[in-house]
Amino acid sequence: MKATIKIISFAISIFLVPPGLHAQVIFEENFDGNELNMKHWSYEEGDGCPNLCGWGNNERQIYNREYLEVKNGKLIITAVKEGDKYFSGKINSKDKVEFQYGVIEVRAKVATGQGIWPAFWMLGHDIAEVGWPASGEIDIMEYVGREPNTVYTTLHYPAHHGENASSKKTKIENIEEGYHTFKTIWTADNIEFFVDGESVYNFVPEEYDEEHYPFRKPFYFLINMAVGGNFGGPEVDDSIFPQKYYVDYIKVTSLE
């Protein structure tokens, strides 16, 4: 299997892992220091207007970099309500860290409460050219506060997306307590999801075409915490704020 990672700063570097070599770490983010590594990440800000107001899901939050910090080796996204507005944070690695296939592991602690929607996910690098869902979407972890003790692992693609996505809802007692590890093994043939080392969903497509498996190209990361919306809400309990979503580390390893 081939795994590639593209890290773009002032120049572009592409690292290829030749077939036959043992697995290698091709990307690692430990959120060291006291600020975000802008060689890896970009901020997404605003309310998604004019094209996708509410970020396409009728979400209530306005994203602002002031509600995201790096501290004590963690990425911390805080959701708050100020006056009649909700604020939170969102980042992505588009055009900076993109890769094709590998073992992705993230350790995180979810925020909780009705209306909260923290997520760790991926989009195809060609989304600006082909749009969504043709780009493909890999949701490694989604948690919605209205469903305690539950996590979602989901794939969106042209044949199945939105409410008709290929998704698995997994009951995990006390998922809200402490940190948990979410792992995804992504290959040219299937995508398998794990929580704390246990397999929860193995997706094998009906067909290997762009309608059913647009996952044979580079993808990039997104990390955010939404408020409300079609999936996260619609109701929001204002008494829960502020809420914090912590990400400890991200590690991508090549396939053997």
Automatic annotation (TrEMBL):
Q: Which GO terms describe its molecular function?
A: hydrolase activity
- Extract the InterPro entries matched here: Beta-glucanase-like, ConA-like_dom_sf, Glycosyl_Hydrlase_16
Keyword Hydrolase part of the UniProt annotation: yes
Residue span, GH16 domain: 11-256
Record keywords = Hydrolase, Signal
Q: List the Pfam families hit by this protein, alphabetically.
A: Glyco_hydro_16 (PF00722)
**CDD domains attached to this UniProt entry:** GH16_laminarinase_like
The residue range of the signal peptide is 1-23
Similarity comment text for this entry: Belongs to the glycosyl hydrolase 16 family.
* Protein name, entry field: Glycoside hydrolase family 16 protein
Organism per entry: Autumnicola musiva
